[in-house]
């Protein structure tokens, strides 16, 4: 397996463009999933406080050289007060068995807690070397614009739902314009798009799976993808994305899929619930 390409973060760190998602996988299943992923060439693992699987992932990480891995976790929206952020981070580091995270994200915006307070805590953790890069998750363009105004540390990443059925082009362009890497946390719409006729037609032409086509489409837009699978064949296919390209006409066909179906419960482009300064 060739080395997975990377994208540069504002800090100069390199983030692998394909990572192993671990949402909704726990216990022995997540240990087996992460172990298999690392054996198949993944070096990027994404977890979160709310996934309740950090301790299990930490067991697997202990079998590998920490310097070879890019590790992300996230703080729950209920824990965004200053002291709670630092306590959550300490707990995550302990469970994962590491001294620092490569990337730490605000998992969701919380309109009841001051974003300045949250970023003050993240800046302190960054200065102390506990997190190498700071980012957000599930932030709309409006929320991201506000975050950039109150954050004294660069916002390196916005992890969002983005896939061919939920192509958020305006937000993607804004992030690219401001040197914020976009990560797709549900790049396969939790398998719902596998029957899409356009993806299947393109997949047949390239002798690939619809999942591979959806992931490649995102990679060609400079999006980092975090597909989740507990299946060894799918884990292998989900990283077999290099050495071939979709041509511009096929990318355009996928761009033009006429639907905006998000698989998350909240429409992330609805700013009505706002954020606090």
UniProtKB/TrEMBL annotation:
Q: State the UniProt keywords alphabetically.
A: NADP, Oxidoreductase
Domain NADP-dependent oxidoreductase intervals: 19-258
What InterPro entries would the database entry show?
Answer: AKR, Aldo/ket_reductase_CS, NAD(P)_OxRdtase_dom_sf, NADP_OxRdtase_dom
**What molecular functions are annotated in GO for this chain?**
oxidoreductase activity, acting on the CH-OH group of donors, NAD or NADP as acceptor
A Pfam family in this protein? Aldo_ket_red
Organism superkingdom: Archaea
Which family is annotated?
Belongs to the aldo/keto reductase family.
This protein is called: Aldo/keto reductase
